[in-house]
Write a structure and sequence with these properties.
There is one protein chain. By secondary structure, this protein is an alpha/beta fold. The protein has four domains: 117 residues, 3-Layer(aba) Sandwich (Rossmann fold), CATH 3.40.50.2300; 148 residues, Rossmann fold (3-Layer(aba) Sandwich), CATH 3.40.50.300; 73 residues, Helicase, Ruva Protein, domain 3 (Orthogonal Bundle), CATH 1.10.8; 44 residues, Arc Repressor Mutant, subunit A (Orthogonal Bundle), CATH 1.10.10. It has a five-stranded parallel β-sheet, sandwiched between helices. Helix 4 packs parallel to helix 6, helix 13 crosses helix 15 and helix 18 crosses helix 19. The longest helix has 19 residues. The chain starts with a strand and ends in a 5-residue tail after the last helix.
Length: 448
């Protein structure tokens, strides 16, 4: 029978949780605060401790630290509970070694899930605390949805590990933000973080960008140049859109991951590196492996830990928080007076499907912050978002080449809209090369 302690200054909640735990077959008792709990821990060993985040005097995070300092609490599973959830206290709790993180009101199913996990001998891992990024940080992960909370918990657990991580999700879901959070909550936080977009760099330049080159290695190489691996020394390197990396470079990358060394372009000397490697993609790499477009051995080397980011439509409860966050950022950057959303504006934002995800939402909010008059952003200020796409009817007088050009322009405009202006993503949606899309944009005088 599991021995459980509940630390919470709210008597009704504390007694209710104890009753649920006893009903589920545990032996449970309560403490009003951290000091009372520490006295109880001195006299008795507990298997699980539920601790409230916000309490008078010593809060939950400090309480976790003090409990962990007790000799008899090394293997005790700690579960943080809070009614004031944000992304940073989730990450902080998991970094300190919390077994899980729950939001009030806590359901019976949540409690049973935790007890079942503990019954499977899932051990908590002790982690050293580190400074958290400022909540006003433009790289903050914003939201309280269960889907995002699972991502935040995993980031916290990864803080003391140096494993490679593969971050997957649709375009615009915030994969680079997750990569930055992993870096900034790790022991490498004071070292460089570099992000390289494999889709944005021409194939013939990508190798030099990553591995560097020596003078004379190719036409125009007038001096030695360090690549991204060397520039990120001691820190973290994110390869975004890893699925766009050519097969020839995938083999060289695999060797780098295995041997922890690189060979600059044009050189025959290897250089040892100390870099944590993260990768991100919006593509299904397993499908690409089946089509011989991605190396299977590289996939398994990258996918030591997998983080899948939910699309915005899958975490719609976060939309008001994200909208407020992006509005605050835009007002600050543009030195604009304070503004608020009307309920009608928020309802209209919530009804959109957001094919461009968080990136699209950010662009929409930035535009609304500029075009709106007065202190309120109303539905009229975001009507451009909801207007149905008007299909341009083909003029009967057009010859075939003109009709094809008109249809082609319409498809390009739609792809750019769905990709929130991201040309690389629009090219993938259209099934054409980026350079061809650039040519067509110029030809049709499209402002993307």
């Amino acid at each position: 029978m599991a021995k459980i302690l509940v630390i919470d200054d709210e008597e009704a909640f504390r007694e209710g949780l104890i009753e649920t735990l006893v009903d589920l077959g545990a032996e449970a008792e309560g403490a009003l605060g951290v000091n009372a709990a520490l006295s109880m821990i001195d006299k008795k060993k507990f298997d699980v401790i539920f601790i409230d985040y916000r309490m008078p005097g010593i809060d939950g995070l400090e309480g976790i630290k003090r409990i962990q300092a007790k000799d008899g609490s090394k293997n005790t599973a700690l579960v943080m509970i809070t009614a004031f959830l944000d992304s940073q206290n989730t990450i902080a709790a998991m970094k300190l070694g919390a077994f899980d993180h729950l939001t009030k009101p806590v359901s019976r199913a949540d409690i049973k899930r935790i007890l079942d996990k503990l019954g499977s001998n899932v051990p908590p891992q002790a982690r050293a605390p580190a400074n958290l990024p400022d909540r006003a940080d433009p790289y903050a992960l914003v939201g309280n949805s269960p889907e995002l909370r699972e991502v935040l918990k995993l980031i916290g657990r990864l803080s003391s590990h140096d494993s490679s991580v593969l971050i997957s999700g649709e375009t615009g879901t915030g994969k680079e933000l997750v990569a930055r959070a992993i870096h900034r909550n790790s022991e490498r936080a004071s070292a460089p973080f570099l992000a390289i977009n494999c889709a944005a760099i021409p194939e013939n330049l990508l190798e030099s960008e990553l591995f560097g080159h020596v003078k004379g290695s190719f036409t125009g190489a007038s001096h030695d140049r360090k690549g991204s691996f060397q520039m990120a020394e001691g820190g973290t390197l994110l390869l975004d859109e890893i699925g766009d990396m050519p097969l020839s470079l995938q083999a060289k990358l695999l060797r780098t991951l295995q041997e922890k060394e690189i060979t600059p372009l044009g050189s025959n000397k290897s250089i040892k590196i100390n870099v944590r490697f993260l990768a991100a993609t919006h593509q299904n790499l397993k499908d690409m492996i089946a089509k011989k477009e991605f190396r299977e051995d590289l996939y398994y080397r990258l996918n030591v830990v997998d983080i899948r980011l939910p699309a915005l439509r899958e975490r719609s409860s976060d939309l008001p928080l994200l909208a407020r966050h992006f509005l605050d950022q835009s007002l600050l950057e543009k030195a604009l007076p304070q503004k608020q959303f009307t309920p009608r504006a928020l309802a209209k934002l919530s009804s959109h499907t957001w094919p461009g995800n968080i990136r699209e939402l950010k662009n929409v909010i930035e535009r609304a912050s500029v075009v709106s008059n007065g202190p309120w952003i109303d539905e009229e200020d975001i009507r451009f978002l909801m207007e149905r796409e008007t299909r341009t009817p083909l003029q009967e007088s057009l010859d075939l080449p003109s009709a094809i050009a008109q249809l082609e322009k319409a498809y390009i405009l739609r792809a750019l809209k769905e990709a929130a202006g991201n040309r690389s993503e629009a090219a993938r949606k259209l099934g054409i090369q980026r350079q061809l899309l650039y040519t067509k944009i110029k030809e049709y005088r499209i402002d993307s």
